Amino acid sequence: MRRAVAILALMTSGCMSMEPKYVRPDPAVPASWPVGDPYLTQSEASLPAVTYKDIFRDPRLQTLIDQALINNRDLMVSVANIEAARAQFQIQRAQQFPQVGASAGVTLTGDRGGSGNGSSSGSGKSSKSVTAEYSAGLSVPSFELDLFGRLRSLTHAQFERYLATEAAARATRLTLVAEIANGWLDYAADSSLLAVSQDTAAAAAKSVQLTQARLNAGVSARTDLVQAEQILDTAQADVANQRTLVAQDLNALQLLVGAPIDPGLLSRSIDEVSPTIAELPPGLSSYVLLRRPDVVEAEYNLRAANANIGAARAALFPKITLTGLLGFASSALTSLFTGGAFGWSASANAAYTIFNAGAGRANVRLSQAQKEAAVATYQGTIQSAFRDVADALARRGTMGDQLSARQRQDAAAAEYLRLSEARYKAGVDNYLTTLDAQRSYYSARQLLVQTKLTAAQNLVDLYQALGGDPLLQTSPVQKSPLMGG
After folding, report:
1. pLDDT tens profile 135-168
2. Residue 207 in contact with residue 231, Cβ under 8 Å?
3. How does pLDDT run across 171-191, given as a tens digit for each residue?
4. Alpha-carbon span 10 to 101, nearest angstrom
5. Measuring CA to CA, which residue among 142, 140, 146, 152 is closest to residue 349?
6. Distance between CA 73 and CA 468 in Å, rounded?
């Protein structure tokens, strides 16, 4: 029996595989990032080994991200999907091994003595006899010999899908980190815009009081007062709107974190938080995209499609199954496990479909077409990732000039307002000039806040586009650690 088991193990472990040799497709993108205007010149340094804490350096933001990685429901779904994919792989892998069952039982049979017409025996009494049959054994029901690698290829495909699910979870994690960073910056920017609106409303209220006093003194026209009130009304409306946006930003952050947020973890100024976002240098080679989690997921799905071709090819060949039974049977429990009570049986069966109207070969063509679609999906994912990085680099290349221009605009608008107010009070200019200066300064302050937000979020976009933390990403390997190939 041990010899039979050894032969069986040898046959199952030495089965062939009919999968095509996997070759990673060409990425179908340029080998380096775009250069020239408006892109920054990239250094030759490769991506450093960093974590999100090296990029998002404010301890408050780090705390929010840590909380979200524990409480976010989308991430919980991803973890559950990984467990489900792992279980599906283990279920499929179990098909490569024989199922062994154990059984034990007793059968009792009896008869009633005497003649067939019911007359009693010579003693005047009927007799009874009971026979017991005891059994115990092991069985191997319908085990398929995987001579052509069908089960092995199906297991390989399921393993690659499991790895793809893990990569999808990393993509969810990366998106979550980026969304929290952007949401945190949105809250800070809207808080800054709220402060700008409140400052403008306060200044407009003083301007209304001044204009009212000049009107009472007969120095200013009533139109000046109406124009001053327009600025005040606009600023007050903006204050109400910004209060709503700040509250909505907090709601969005709480949804991402998955729990109430400590107000001490929030910032009220974009100027305070934007310098805490560091830049992740992309280097020169665009092949760093191969470690982006969505690209990794697409390649694992491609490898699974490649394995399915092997399973479809193997299904064209005969299916050989084995069944076996060994055990003991005896009429006496005390002699059940004696040598004379031992028995065994084994059988083999080969099945081959002679005619199925071409369904088998069509299944091969189907798996090949699905692989071609997976190749296109993989290359398309890389191309989309390349565009994400190129767009972020294009914005990064011009962001410094835009921010400097907005800062100069803000300073000029502030000076223009100071001079126009002085000239109005001196009676040199009418109030229309001051009104225009107030509007220009208000708009310049708002644009400066928006530009600072865009600059900070551009760094978040670059972090996400490059795939986030290099240490947490894993590219597909040429040999699957659990499959041996």
Report:
1. 888 887 878 888 888 889 989 999 999 999 999 9
2. yes
3. 999 999 999 999 999 999 999
4. 21
5. 142
6. 20
Buried b (16+ CB within 10 A) or exposed e, 102-116: eeeeeeeeeeeeeee
Q: What is the CA radius of gyration of the chain?
A: 39
416: domain CATH number? 1.20.1600.10
Q: Is residue 207 situated within a structural domain?
A: yes
CA distance 413 to 400: 20
Say which DSSP state 36 is in: S
CA-to-CA separations, 217 to 23, 44, 135, 214, 220, in angstroms, rounded: 88, 71, 118, 5, 8
Q: What is the DSSP string of 325-387?
A: EEEEEESSGGGTTSGGGEEEEEEEEEE--S-STTHHHHHHHHHHHHHHHHHHHHHHHHHHHHH
User: Are 110 and 80 spatial neighbours (Cβ–Cβ below 8 Å)?
Assistant: no
Give 174's contacts (C-beta < 8 A, 6+ positions apart): 293, 464, 467, 468, 469
Domain encompassing residue 190: 14-108+129-472
**Is residue 132 helix, strand or coil?**
strand
Q: Which two tokens stand for residue 44?
A: 């030759």
- Number of domains into which the chain is organized: 1
Q: What is the DSSP letter of 33?
A: -
Helical (H) or strand (E) element with 343: strand 342-351
Q: 167 is written with which tokens?
A: 């990569």
| Whether 299 contacts 374, CB under 8 Å | no
Q: Which three-class secondary structure state does DSSP give residue 115?
A: coil
Find all residues with CB under 8 Å of 235, minimum gap 6, and list them.
197, 198, 200, 201, 204, 442
Residue with tokens 């009104």: 435
User: Is residue 120, in this structure, part of any structural domain at all?
Assistant: no
Q: For residue 483, is it within any domain?
A: no
Residue type, 337: F
Q: What is the percentage of the chain residues whose pLDDT exceeds 70?
A: 85
